[in-house]
Amino acid sequence: MAKEFWRWKEYNWKNDEIDWKSGSIISAGVDVGSVSSQAVILVDGELFAFSNMRTGSNSPMSAQNAMNWALENTGMTLENIHYTVGTGYGRVNVPFANKTITEIACHARGANKMYGNTIRTLLDMGGQDCKAISCDEKGKVTNFLMNDKCAAGTGRGMEVFADLLSLPIEEIGDLSFEVDEEPEPVSSTCVIFAKSEATGLLRAGWPKNKVLAAYSSAMAHRVVSLLERIEIKEDFAITGGIAKNSGVVKRLEKELGIKALTTTYDTQIAGAFGAALFGKALVEKERK
Amino acid sequence: MISKFREWNSNRHAYAKEWKNKTGGKVLGYFCTYVPEEIIYAADVLPIRILGSHEPQDLTEPHIFGMFCPFCRDCLAQGLKGKYSYLDGVMIAQSCLHIRQAYTSWEKHIPTSFTYYLPMPNNVQSPHALKYLTEEIRDFKKALEKWIGKELSDDDIIRGIQLMDENRLLMHQLYDFKTQENPPISGEETMQIAITQQMVRKEEHNFVLREFLQNIKSNKKNTGTRLMILGSENDDIPFVKMVEECGATVVIDDHCIGTRYFWNSVNYTGGDPIEAIAKRYIERPACPSKDWMDRKRIQHLLKLAKDFDAKGAILIQQKFCDPHELDIPAIRKAFKEADIPTLFLEFDVTVPIGQFKIRVEAFLEMLNEYDLF
C-alpha cells in the first residue's frame, strides 16, 4: 500500500494527576467533525482525558470509538459520566449525548479555557469548513461567519496537498518556508483547481516546497477575508488542525499584522473541550 | 384550518385550472407584487404570482445569465417546463432587471394571448411618481379592457379595491396575533397564508382567513425565540420550518411574500380610484430596487422588529439579488445599533438545509443560553 502522507497522528491522553473518583462533576464532550473526531472528559472542569482520531464513514460509530479511546486505561466507564454534550458536523449522531450544541458555541467556549479569557476573535480551521467567531470574556459567541459553499482553505485541502507532494502532513508547515523567495499564491483555493494548478507548477519545474508555499499563502489569504468581514479584535487565536500548520499560521499572522495566541493544549480538541464545559454547566444547572 | 392554505399552496396549479374550468374566466400570471391586482380583480380575471419550485433545473441557461438571481431563473423554468400552461396572459410591473428578464424570455418563448409590461417608476420618492403611475395604470386598464372585451367602470375598480383592502385588513388582524407573547401562529403557518394570497381568489382567501381568525385563539402557542426574517423574495417554507424546529418562532417578516405585499391599503374615500390605487403602490413598503434616493426601508424595518419584539433577524438574500445586497450593510448597521443581532444567509434555487441549520442553531445559541456561562 502506498504511503499515506496526509495521515496525521491519532492518539489518546490522560492526566495521571487527577483522581476522577474524588471529582464532583464528570462531564464529556464529543466533537464528530467531517474529518476528525475528539472526545474530551473533564473532572470538575479540568482536562482529565481525551482522544483525537479520524472520523469514519459512520458517525455514531466514530463518536463511540472516540469516547472508548478517551476512556481507555482510565478506570472510568460511560456510566460514570454525568453529562455528555455532542457537537460538530455529526453532533446528532452521538448516541450517548444528553444534548447537542453547535461547534461554533463549543469552540468559543473551549478556546476561552484553552487560550484564556482575553480571546475575542477565534478562527476555527476545521476539516471541511472554516469559522470566524467573535466572543466575549466568558467565551460566549457574539458573532460568527462561516465560509460558504466550498472546502477551500480547510484541513482536507491540506491533506490533498500532502498526498500530491508526497510530504508528511505534520512537516509541511515548516517545509513551506524552505524556499528561496516567497512565491505568489496559487490563484485558486478551490481544492480541485488548486491541485490542477499545483500539478502545472511542478511540471514547470517548481520545487515541492515552493508549491507548498504558494498553496499555504493562498489558504491564509482566503481566511483573512473571512476574518476581515467579522472585524478582528485581539486577542486572536486559531483552533482546529490547521492551527498546527506553521506554514499557514505564520503567513496568516503576517497578513493580519497580529500574533495568534498559542496553547499547550491540542488545538484540535477545542470543540470537544467546549462541549464538555457546557456539560459541566448543564449539570450545575440541574443540581441547583 | 391551516390545512386549507397548505392544500392551496401544494396544489396551486390545480386550483387555478379548476377555477378556470368552473368559471370560464381568464388567469393572468404576474412576476412582481407592484402589479396592481385591484384592476385585475375589477376585470374578474384571476391574478396569480409566478413562483419557482425550488427544484434543480437546467432549462434556463440559454435564456438568463448565470449571475442573475436563482428566483428569476426558477420562475422562468416553470414556464419552460409547461407548469403554467393554463395561463391566458402574463405581466410584470418594473422592479428589477433580473425578474424582467424572466418576463421577457417568457413572453418570447411561451406564447399567450396577453402580455403587459407596466413601467412602474423606480424613483417612487419623486413628486412626479404618482402622476406617472396613475397614467400608466390607466393605460394598463385600457389594455386589459381590450383583452377581456369589456369596459371597466369606476364601480368595478372600486369593487377591486375593496376586495384587496379587505384581504389586507384580515392579514393585519392575523399579524396582530403575532405581536402576542407566545403567538398562536407560527412563521410556517403565516407563510402558507401569505403565499396563498398570491394564488387564490381573494374572495375565497378572505372567507377562509376570516374563519381561521375566529378560531385562532385555540391554536398551539409558539414559544420559540422571536425572530424576524427579511430580504429578497422568499417562499421557502421548508427553510422557515427548519428555523422553527431549531427553537425559533418567526414573528415578523419583510418579504414581498409577506408584509411588503399587504402592509398598506388603498383606503378609497372618493375621487379618482385609479389615482388612489397608484398612491397605494407608490407609498407601500418599498422593494429596495425602489428605495432611493433616501433609504426609507430601514426605519420601517426597525419599527417592525420593535413592534413584534424580534430578538434577532435573519437577513435573506437570493444569490446575486443586487438591490437587497446593496441594502445589507445598512440594515446590519442599523440593527446592530438597535441591539438586534443579525444572521446573513444567501439563498439559491435549492437551499442547503444542513449548512444553514448549523448557522441558525448557532445564532439561536448566541441569542440564548446565558445561564450556561
Task: Tell me what you see in this structure.
The complex is a heterodimer of chains A (288) and B (373). Helices cover 37% and strands 19% of the residues of chain A. Chain A is of the alpha/beta class and 288 residues long. A six-stranded mixed beta sheet of chain A has the order 1-4-3-2-5-6. In chain A, a hairpin with a 3-residue loop joins β2 (26-32) and β3 (36-43). The radius of gyration of chain A is 19 Å and the shape is globular. The longest helix of chain B is centred in the middle third of the chain and has 25 residues, at 154-178. Chain B folds into two domains: 2-148, Rossmann fold (3-Layer(aba) Sandwich), CATH 3.40.50.11890; 157-372, Rossmann fold. In chain B, the strands form two sheets. In chain B, strands 2-1-3-4 form a four-stranded parallel beta sheet, sandwiched between helices. Chain B has a four-stranded parallel beta sheet with strand order 6-5-7-8, with helices on both faces. Chain B is an alpha/beta fold. Chain B is globular and about 70 Å long. Chain B is built from 15 helices and eight strands. Helix content of chain B is 50%, strand content 12%. The mean pLDDT of chain B is 96. Chain B has helices at residues 2-10, 12-23, 37-42, 70-80, 97-109, 129-148, 154-178, 187-196, 202-215, 237-245, 259-262, 273-283, 297-307, 322-337, 353-367; strands at 27-30, 46-49, 89-93, 114-118, 225-231, 248-254, 312-318, 342-347. Chains A and B meet through α2, β9 and α8 of A and α15 of B.
